[in-house]
Amino acid sequence: MTTATDTAPAKPATAFQAMLRGFRGRCPNCGEGRMFRAFLKVADECPACGEELHHHRADDFPAYLVIVIVGHVLIPIVLAVETEFAPSYWVHLALWLPAVLIMTLGLLQPVKGAIVAGQWYGGMHGFEEARRLRELAAAQLPAR
Ligand SMILES: [Zn+2]
């Protein structure tokens, strides 16, 4: 038998699950609707479940985190290549400039999605009401 709760989108059980949904560019609430309406523009609300997403305040944090990640991955490799092979500067430029561009552009949207989803899960900024309603709905469900 199908009940209303069976067809409702599965709420994320943990912050990690919500942030994983955000990392994949999906709504943290339902995991189905797209979080972004452009490369780095978060949709005002989820097209699938209608969850409000415009409350996020990611600001510069995704860019900062991407710099930290890309730096920690590439700098040891750059230093290893330099100490082992000592190639000329144009080889470094030809290797690392595309690597940095691909990694930063590839990580920026997923990292921003994860941060927005983390803010949503934690009830930060304007997400307090959504979190309060989630907790209220969870308290009214019978224990499994
Ligand atoms: Zn949704």
Describe the structure.
The chain is mostly helical and 144 residues long. The chain has one domain. The chain has helices at 4-7, 15-23, 61-85, 89-122, 128-140. Helix 3 (61-85) runs antiparallel to helix 4 (89-122). The longest helix is centred in the last third of the chain and has 34 residues, at 89-122. It is elongated. 22% of the residues are buried. Residues 1-5 have low confidence and may be disordered. Zinc ion binds at residues 27, 29-30, 32-33, 46, 48-49, 51.
State the gist of this model:
With 144 residues, this protein is an all-alpha fold. It is 59% helix and 0% strand. The chain contains five helices and no strands.
Mean pLDDT, rounded to whole units?
A: 90
Low-confidence stretches: 1-5
Overall form: elongated
Q: How far is it from the N-terminal to the C-terminal residue, by CA?
A: 17 Å
Derived structural class: mainly alpha
- The fraction of residues in strands falls at under 5%
Structurally, the number of domains stands at 1
**Rg computed from alpha carbons, rounded to a whole number of angstroms:** 20 Å
Order of helices and strands: HHHHH
Structure ligands: zinc ion
The tally of beta strands, per DSSP, is 0
Tell me the layout of helices and strands.
Layout: H1 4-7, H2 15-23, H3 61-85, H4 89-122, H5 128-140
Helix pairs in contact: 2-4, 3-4
The structure holds zinc ion.
Zinc ion binds near residues 27, 29, 46 and 48.
